[in-house]
Amino acid sequence: PCLTWLCSPLAERTGKVLGEFCRCYKEQYGVALFNSVCYEIEGNGGPQAQLLHRKVPLEDHVIYSGNLFQYIEENKKWRNRFCVVPHNYGLILYENKLAYERDLQPRVLVNSAGYKILTSVDQYLELVNSSLPGVTPKSGHSPILKCPTDFPLILWHPYARHYYFCVMTGKEQEKWRAVFQDCVRHCNNGISEDSKVEAPAFTDAVRMYRQSKEQYGTWDMLCGNETQVLSNLVMEELLPELRTAIGPRLKGKAQERQRTWIQISDAVYRMVYEQTKAQYDAVTAKCEQERPQMESTIRTDMDQIITSKEHLASKIRAFVLPKAEICVRNHVQPYISSILEALMTPTSQGFAEVRDVFFKEVTDMNMNIVNEGGLEKLVEYMEKLSHLAFHPVKMQSCYEKMDQLKLEGLQQRFDVSSTSVFKQRAQIHMRQQMDDAVYTFETLLHQELGKLQGKDELCKSIQRILERVLKKYDYDSSTVRKKFFREALLQITIPFLLKKLAPTCKGELAKFQELIFEDFASFILVENTYEEVVLQSVMKDIMQAVKEAAVQRKHNLYRDSMVMHNSDPNLHLLGEGVPIDWGEEYSGQPEAEPAADKRRRAKQVVSVIQDDEGVLPYEVGAEVLTQPSSPEPREPDPGPPPSSPDGVEEIREELAKESLGAAPAPPKPGANVPSGANVHHTTPVPPKPGADVPAEAEAPRATPASPTPGAETPSPPASVACHQPSDKETGEEVAPLEGECSPPPPTATTESSEGVQTEF
């Protein structure tokens, strides 16, 4: 369906939402800048972490790579794809492994922020049926999606394009699910915490905007980088209007209408994303331009600004605090201990599991060194241990403890739409604490190696260092968890209190504006000061509840009075040194090797599965690998490729033959044999992290392969420069083709028209 008629009203509606948000952002920017300068002057409080923190944990690594099937919507066929997950957690899909090793254009680049990972077609169909009310396929009719195996992996998003994959075994499905979930977890956390001004200004602006629309409580779609979050904010308002406008116009069977609706939603999301990015970049650039003058004013008039703010706060406190305290006493205080207990149990179990996994890995390494050899084995095991925190499968037992988190009646009482926000935050803390423990361990061990003689001394030293690190972990884990509990309790109770107090307090706030000097109006806001007063009304009860839990030694929490001072005074100096490369340092410098070989030998965190069936048994589809723009020459045409099954039934028949031991036909001499295409590899060749998803690259269309006769072939684009890796953000930003108002209509096309599909 063509969306040309919608372009103008969509752009106007999007511009209106963004205009309101940008006004909120500019207001919050001044407040955040003032708070940042105050924090810098006053110094940071809180206990010092005992564990070291690694700055670049996954340099020169990829998380995972391997083969899986992808469903191509353009021609409704399943294709074998080679998927690479680089250190920035983007999903990059290549035609096959050979295309990856030749550094050809990837087929798909996906940023998984905001996605849900589904392992059941029924789960997916339930979500699809609810997305377009009144359109449900009749019983017995063919569903929108059929999977050729019993092990699907579906990436579902409420607004953007969906991605459909499947694998051949349950073991593969579990591993890919863990990898995909790690990608989602990482990409959802896309707003950098290193930014002390822009990040709080943005999140506060989002909160203030939603509260102005009477939307309080947690928000599930605060996912991804700033542009993604803003696009979700716009789509939250646009989608109901869009559904009302377009729903009745959809024609065809229920499945076709559902498929068309998903394509329309994705097309609108892309249009919104482009407009959002341009407008948000403009407002941030303007704020950054004004920052030096604002900061100069803050530093010059700091005392007067603080005095003015305290005067305003005292007036608001006298008006609001009595009402807030009654509300806290009647509606919040009785439930704080229940909320805290619900949070503490799964979170502390997860952190205990992190400790156990770390202890087990180091102990197993130590035993293997005793049985198998000394330093050589140590180097081999330390290379694996150094990235334990980023191994999705080994960390899964820690993460899944948070699945027990249920607020039940409390969730409805306090208007918490979902617990996923808290689960994800706790899981990110777990991964960070694991990496801090591992990095501290390897730093201390590396320091000791020069002094050790013999295998026995090495094993004793490992055990001694392990005990030291575990003590540090227990202390830091307690500190991190207590902070997490306090923040979670505030996230649950403050929106509830603001909503309760709004009818009696919010309308009266305007009269306090006259108490702010005009020169300081950029740094002091009545709304923010009001929220701080409300926070103070409940903060004492929250602090007391967490303190009591620590005094009772519930869940191995340390009391606030327990402070570790300078137990290792020189440890943090060690952490500032050059990162340790165990393989290079203790195995000698590797000889120079060609870029292609280096790409194939890149270190990989998660090992590829080796099943009896081997990797996927055939390549679905037979497009030519070498593109016209590729610098590599074409190889001689070996003749027509063997036929490949495309439909669900044919794939099932082929899988059945494979399981009965049908031997694949050998390839013809000189033919390009893609990885996974009638070849069973015994040793996977790991990829290089150089194929990271670029942060800010326009997405070109891939050069089309030979089209199917009679199919519509898109015109080839102009030549495009190669992607350059970047760590600024995960995934891609969409660049619509020149002259397009919306993506092209989903007419029948060949597989080659898929091009490079990018996600934001």
UniProtKB/TrEMBL annotation:
Superkingdom of this protein's organism: Eukaryota
Region (Disordered): 584-604, 626-760
PH domain mapped to chain residues: 61-185
Low complexity bias spans: 694-709
SMART domains for this protein: PH
InterPro entries, per the entry: Niban-like (IPR026088), Niban_1/2/3_dom (IPR059060), PH-like_dom_sf (IPR011993), PH_domain (IPR001849)
Family note: Belongs to the Niban family.
Protein name listed in UniProt: NIBL1 protein
